[in-house]
Design goal:
- The protein is mostly helical.
- It is 80% helix and 0% strand.
- It contains 9 helices and no strands.
- α3 packs parallel to α6 and α3 (40-58) packs across α7.
- The protein is globular and about 55 Å long.
- The relative contact order is 0.22.
- The model has no long low-confidence stretch (mean pLDDT 82).
């Protein structure tokens, strides 16, 4: 792969990844609740969701879905519904904040992983990002699979780095300033923001 193209892709990806979005918000919330070391399944689940989306785009399946108005419409609604469901759950569900070094609040790793995976794989933002850049960067005269693998691994690696940084900062804030009351307010605000993301996607559905 052309080195300059890879650097350009990595730079654009980094800007897209660090921009506040559902994955960043979800990771920060979980880090606030559980601590930095407990959110590894969240970070890995998001990365796998991004990898699956990238593989789908590289295989051309997303092009087929977008070519079908009905399938693309349904996919968009799945993303909107999941974001809205997460937001409503944050507004009505009580979560206990753990401030101990040995956490007394447990959320199963599988639940954290699936939550982040579904959030990533149903969010059209990453798929549209892949669809916009892949045709500009992939060289059909070279091995498409190897090129796509490099780009997907780059995007997922940058995502892991970004979310790890977000969770570290959230942990720092949590250990010094967070209380159960403040966490409750933060969780509710997070729910409103997620519903806002869902509403924004809903407005873009055609």
């Amino acid at each position: 792969m052309n080195w300059a193209l890879w650097v350009s892709f990595a730079t654009i990806s980094a800007v897209n990844i660090v921009t506040p979005g559902p994955a960043n918000l979800n990771t920060v919330r979980r880090a606030m609740q559980l601590g930095m070391f407990q959110v590894a399944p969240t970070i890995l689940g998001n990365a796998l969701g991004l990898a699956v989306g990238g593989a789908i785009c590289a295989a051309g399946i997303t092009s087929f879905v977008m070519a079908s108005d009905l399938l693309w419409f349904l996919f968009q609604w799945v993303g909107v519904a999941y974001l809205a469901w997460l937001g409503v759950k944050l507004l009505i569900r009580k979560e206990t904040l753990s401030l101990n070094s040995q956490t007394d609040v447990t959320v199963p790793a599988r639940a954290l992983f699936l939550e982040a995976f579904l959030l990533a794989v149903t969010n059209p933002k990453a798929l549209l990002f892949y669809m916009a850049l892949f045709p500009q960067i992939l060289n059909p005269e070279r091995g498409l699979a190897s090129q796509a693998s490099i780009l997907i691994l780059t995007y997922c690696g940058l995502s892991i780095l970004s979310l790890s940084t977000y969770s570290t900062l959230a942990h720092f804030f949590r250990s010094r300033f967070m209380t159960q009351t403040r966490y409750n307010r933060f969780r509710q605000i997070s729910g409103v923001i997620l519903i806002g993301f869902a509403a924004k996607l809903l407005m873009n559905i055609r």
